[in-house]
Amino acid sequence: MGAQLRVYKQKISSAQTTKKITKAMELIAASRIQKAMARVRAASPFARAVTRAVSAVATNSNVDHPLTREPDQIRRSAVVIFTADRGLAGAFNSQILREALEVAEMLKEQGREVVYYLVGRKAVGYFQFRKMDWVADWVGDTDNPSFETAEAISASILESFRKEYAEGGVDEIHLVYNRFVSMMTQSPENVRLLPLEIVEADAAEAASTQVFPLYEFEPDAEQVLDSILPVYIQSRVYNALLQSAAAKHAATQKAMKSASDNADKLITDYTRLRNNARQAEITQQIAEIVGGADALAS
Q1: What is the residue extent of each domain of the chain?
Q2: What stretch or stretches form a coiled coil here (predicted)?
């Protein structure tokens, strides 16, 4: 019985230590998610302004620009996968990798070759383990993404998009990332970034009777597009990085809260078992004393 009591005490101590760690990680994730959401809100006005500017140029001019031109045949597609550098976030990384591979499989069924661009150590580790090839990767900047990382990703995918197919270029680019919906929900998103599909305003604005102004472009619409489209691509990539970071912190908080609750349940169960074992040991000792006294009396 003494050995059994020691086992239960060790398990209770281990569960209590685990609970301290998971509770601390839950609190850290809760503080980080507020900062991440503040960054998303701060970046949104600029992203909306750039989208409206690009939409104005694209819809009010007849320029045939390479970034807005739909190719006659799409032979090679690029998929940019946004994961995290760390785990302990529940199904955050696995669901986005599953979504990305489903997108890639759909593109392959359409007769397209697929190449990958990876963001986050989890995606790199996944591809290394399965001996899959990728073009470029960016790691170490997923928890608190910087705009420099978005610029590097945008420059790489734009360079690949502008190349000819024979030189290793791609005909379209997809972004696959987790979008922050709420503290409990993170939704995988698949967005075709290039060729550009401009969706201006929302349903309420579209249904309104607002009269939009006439536009004049200086020096000309093509040069305006040349200047503003890279900024638009950077803002979309940066938004994907920020959304992914916020979703990751929310997933970590949810996973750590679940781990803390499970540790509490283990502590309760093992405490009950320890008390039962201790009671059984006391009962056995009393029985032995009474039996010994009866033997001496007889």
Answers
A1: 2-16+254-297, 26-253
A2: 256-283
Q: Count other Cβ atoms within 10 Å, centred on residue 174.
A: 21
**Which CATH topology does 26-253 take?**
Pyruvate Kinase; Chain: A, domain 1 (3.40.1380)
> Is the Cβ–Cβ distance between 281 and 34 less than 8 Å?
no
pLDDT, tens digit (0-9, with 9 covering 90-100), for 172-222: 999 999 988 887 788 899 988 888 765 544 444 444 445 555 667 677 777
Task: Dump pLDDT digits (tens) for 100-142.
Answer: 999 999 999 999 999 999 999 999 999 999 999 999 999 988 8
Tell me the per-residue pLDDT of 46-65, one tens digit each, with 9 for 90 and over.
Answer: 888 888 878 777 776 677 77
Return the structure tokens found at 156. 């790489």
Mean pLDDT of the chain: 85
143: phi then psi, degrees, rounded to nearest 5: -70, -40
- CA distance linking residue 204 with residue 206, whole number of Å: 5
Partners of residue 80 on adjacent β-strands:
117, 175
Give 78's strand partners.
115, 173
User: Please, is 23 exposed, middle or buried when counting C-beta atoms within 10 Å of its C-beta (0-12, 13-18, 19+)?
Assistant: middle
Burial 103-125 (b: 16+ CB within 10 A, else e): bbeebeeeebebbbbbbbbbbbb
Q: Quick one: pLDDT at residue 203?
A: 42
List, in sequence order, every residue forming a beta bridge with 190; answer none if it has no partner. 176
Q: If DSSP codes are grouped into helix, strand and coil, which group holds residue 90?
A: coil
Length of the chain: 298
